[in-house]
Design a protein that fits this description.
Length: 609
């Protein structure tokens, strides 16, 4: 047990005590995925629910247990080790949060964690309780030159298309970069696939379903040199293209029409208008909306003075607002928004810097809180703006309004009763009515569509750093601005409202080395089954190096030159010979390059359900 023998119980006391303790064998180094799980799921639970009584900030350490470092969790307190890595059933921490023992309940006073939080703790212990919090972590992180000079932080420079021997194989500049790598390794590309395979591959890739018999026969009978280009153009013009590729983006945007954990006595778990964001994404892909405009609308469409039919683009802001609600924990909601913006557009795990400087990438905690200040300076309006006009005389709208007003009147009456008389039945009826209202808004044909927007607050403000991620433990206030590693020598502070407009401008700047690279890698991934960089959400120091770095920069440069057109990028990739290769095996090449990173043949891919 750690004693409090001095006048104050400070961090140095923990460090000094820890120095005399034997904690057993050193744990295996956590993987990147495990660290992300800890930072996004476990650390917030510990800091929000445990630190007040079980950290150096407690006036007296309850039960002799500190949960501030992995070492101290393993040592435990008066009752023994708090966790047994790999075994939740033998871990006192898990027993305490489950409330199965009346004498051991944490957090106390009937403040039991949600089922989701308990499940996350169980999962964490099962995976060995990976935890980056070691005693030495109190020292500020510094990054060496190689970490700052990582390839993805360097400017995009359009390379010269290489000259190769296989000139007859080169249909687009993409092929020259692939052939150059193959020739370096004494390899040759596979023959082109047959036409039946090719139309099947292209059709599944672009619209997600098989070609019809007539489409296949038409292509087989078309002997013109641009026969395949006509297939690609037809598929890109199909409305199913936006449905197919919109789904890929919706995965990146962590799209959902439900909120996750909510306080069901206060709100329903449905997002009635999430579908307006989904439809916006599908429409954006079908219209080939320039990707830089696509980014701007998702971050700050409310600032674009949209009118008429363009007003529907307000729905783009669902990108920020359709995330999980974390039982209304605003700091977790903001963290989720920072995560989707920085992973989705920049391929960086910035939220790993919420509680400490990033362990691998040159992203200090102050950068995280610079972004936090932007999103903490935003609010969601009580009534979301309506998209398009309302025909208040239409039968559908009149029926919707009648049902909506009736349910709302019933809910208000129940709320008034609950102020006087709290019963289980009253609570259940409230929950039921809220759900009926949400489903009515979501599904009734007369329900006016609304945009899930985010607006600037009346008094935007910079954010303090939360020391170790604890909202009650505030440090220096940091200005709202972009990430240091991507800003160069000019790093202005954001004073235009919340700063979302400035943030969008920094993300889409051609000088930003990540935005175009990350998106062309996502497109490549869905055509070949694997990206040029195999970690599409992480271009930092922990990412795998690009298999073809010059090709990556060529594609990124062309993407910007071609007006950030996603459809033009499809065309450039799909009309190449490397896309049209057969999947025939070559035993020698399979030994030399077993993962086919050099693309000497087409990857064999499973059909998606």
């Amino acid at each position: 047990m750690l004693s409090r023998s001095t006048a104050s119980y400070g961090l140095m006391a923990i460090l000094a005590a820890g120095g005399m303790l034997a904690f057993g064998a050193k744990a295996a180094e956590p993987t990147k995925e495990q660290l992300e799980f800890f930072e996004n799921k476990i650390r917030p639970i510990l800091s929000d629910n445990c630190y007040k009584c079980h950290s150096h900030e407690a006036p007296k350490l309850k039960g002799g247990l500190s949960v501030e470092f992995r070492d101290l969790l393993l040592k435990g307190g008066e009752n023994g080790p708090a966790i047994v890595p790999g075994d939740p059933e033998k871990s006192l921490l898990i027993k305490a949060v489950r409330y199965t023992d009346a004498d051991l309940q944490m957090p106390p006073k009937n403040k039991k964690l949600s089922d989701q939080q308990i499940g996350d703790l169980e999962t964490w212990v099962k995976m060995g309780a990976p935890d980056p919090r070691v005693m030495s972590a109190v020292i500020a992180k510094t990054w060496n030159k190689s970490e700052r000079d990582h390839w993805s932080f360097k400017p995009v420079k359009k390379p010269v298309v290489p000259e190769v021997k296989e000139t007859n194989w080169v249909q687009t500049p993409v092929d020259a970069f692939i052939a150059a790598k193959l020739e370096e390794n004494g390899m040759k590309p596979s023959l082109l696939a047959d036409k039946r395979t090719l139309i099947r591959r292209a059709t599944f890739d672009l619209i997600g379903i098989a070609p019809t018999l007539k489409e296949t026969e038409d292509f087989l009978n078309d002997e013109s040199p641009d026969a395949f280009a006509k297939v690609v153009d037809r598929l890109l013009a199909s409305p199913h293209y936006g449905e197919r590729w919109g789904r890929f983006w919706l995965d990146t945007a962590r799209y959902s029409d439900t909120k996750g954990d909510v306080k069901i006595q206060k709100e329903d778990f449905h997002y009635p208008y999430a579908w307006t964001y989904r439809d916006y994404v599908v429409r954006a892909f079908n219209e080939d909306k320039p990707y830089n405009r696509f980014i701007v609308e998702q971050l700050c469409a409310d600032k674009l003075n949209l009118t008429g039919t363009n007003r529907w683009d307000l729905a783009a802001m669902g990108f920020l607002t359709v995330g999980e609600r974390f039982t209304d924990n605003i700091n977790d909601i903001i963290n989720d928004r920072i995560d989707v913006v920085t992973k989705g557009f920049l391929g960086l795990t910035v939220t790993c810097a919420r509680c400490h400087d990033h362990k691998f990438d040159p992203i200090p905690t102050k950068d995280y809180y610079s972004l936090r200040g932007i999103f903490a300076s935003c609010v969601e309006p009580k009534d979301e703006p309506i998209l398009g006009g309302i025909n208040k005389a239409s039968p559908d709208y009149l029926e919707f309004a009648k049902q909506y007003n009736s349910l709302s009147d019933q809910l208000r009456a129940l709320e008034a009763i609950r102020l006087r008389l709290r019963t289980k039945e009253t609570k259940q009826n409230e929950i039921k009515l809220r759900r009926e209202i949400a489903l009515l808004e979501e599904n009734h044909p007369g329900s006016p569509p609304r945009a899930m927007v985010l607006l600037d607050s009346q008094k935007p403000a910079d954010s303090p750093v939360f020391i170790r991620g604890e909202a009650e433990n505030k440090g220096d206030i940091v200005p709202r601005r972009f990430l240091e590693i991507l800003s160069g020598t000019v790093r202005p502070e954001y004073r235009n409202g919340s700063g979302r407009v400035d943030l969008a401008a920094a993300i889409i700047s051609p000088a930003n080395p990540l935005t175009a690279r990350v998106m062309v890698n996502r497109i490549w991934l869905h055509h070949f089954g694997e990206g040029i960089v195999t970690t599409p959400d992480d271009f930092g120091n922990q990412s795998a190096p690009p298999s073809h770095p010059e090709l990556m920069d060529y594609l990124a440069s062309r993407f910007i030159e071609d007006g950030w057109s996603i459809k033009k990028m499809h065309r450039l990739i799909m009309l190449s010979s490397v896309y049209q290769e057969s999947s025939d095996n070559n035993p020698r090449y399979a030994q030399q390059d077993p993962n086919n990173r050099l693309l000497w043949r087409a990857n064999i891919r499973r059909l998606e359900f």
